[in-house]
């Protein structure tokens, strides 16, 4: 698309064909920037900037569809939607489209191969093998952005889980979740002994997402709405080859049922807050360090793990555990955590 048409022999030359692809996007961007600079763009103002009527009609309609311009009734003037709001909404739409495109690429490839008679072995429609830890992590990040109803995640100490937790500890917005999404997080006790795990748990709790702990998760699972699930097997194969993304109804219902069972059988992890002040509950002095000890105790964590996560010595943990068990009348460590939760200490 050009803004002028040359004359040949005194007559107007045929208008060039409409631009497509990147060239069209560049024209859309240039008119958008022109509109932003004008503040209140009008048909006459855009003409004065060198745009012809055909371009103005086409591109302003596109920008209106993208939520970046609002036309008046006559269609000869436009209101610019505040750029920060319009651009972020546009980026969000593109991210959703990219995630959906990525999720359906394999299935479309299978359909195409079947249509052209490709002799290679086909994967079942709606089931995709993931080839690397990076691929698994990318799909998990995409599902966090894509989820609108629920995001249920059970994490074992897999290579992909460790990579994601490290990334989320050093970069903001790696695992975003929309407001209103039903989030459930279950963490394997083995994962709590790894770097970045507790900081991830505490950030999730601060965001209002319930966290539970379970021992012996066989592998990591993630369910995104009722549209996709990931079976992360990278703990068993650190390369990541062999993990799966499923989009078929049967596997999705199976993953949902398994995650529901894991959730019921797991132990709620109490919110651990650092207020810097102590409290007295049932006549027992209880500070934030003791709350953390009790919260980890309820998950079945070892003294060594509690010591590392609390920043105290193993001997101090042993003393505090004995003190708490005595005042709770608990015969076992796990019972102490349960009793504390029942009394509202956690």
UniProtKB/TrEMBL annotation:
Per its UniProt record, what PROSITE patterns does this chain match? HTH_LUXR_2
Tell me the organism's taxonomic lineage. Answer: Bacteria, Bacillati, Actinomycetota, Actinomycetes, Micrococcales
Organism this protein belongs to:
Ornithinimicrobium tianjinense
Gene Ontology BP annotations: regulation of DNA-templated transcription
Q: Protein name, please?
A: Transcriptional regulator
Q: Which SUPFAM superfamilies match?
A: C-terminal effector domain of the bipartite response regulators (SSF46894)
Composition bias (Basic residues) maps to 1-10
Q: Which domain of life is it from?
A: Bacteria
Any idea which GO molecular function terms this record carries?
DNA binding
Tell me which residues make up the HTH luxR-type domain: 279-344
Q: Where is this region: Disordered?
A: 1-20
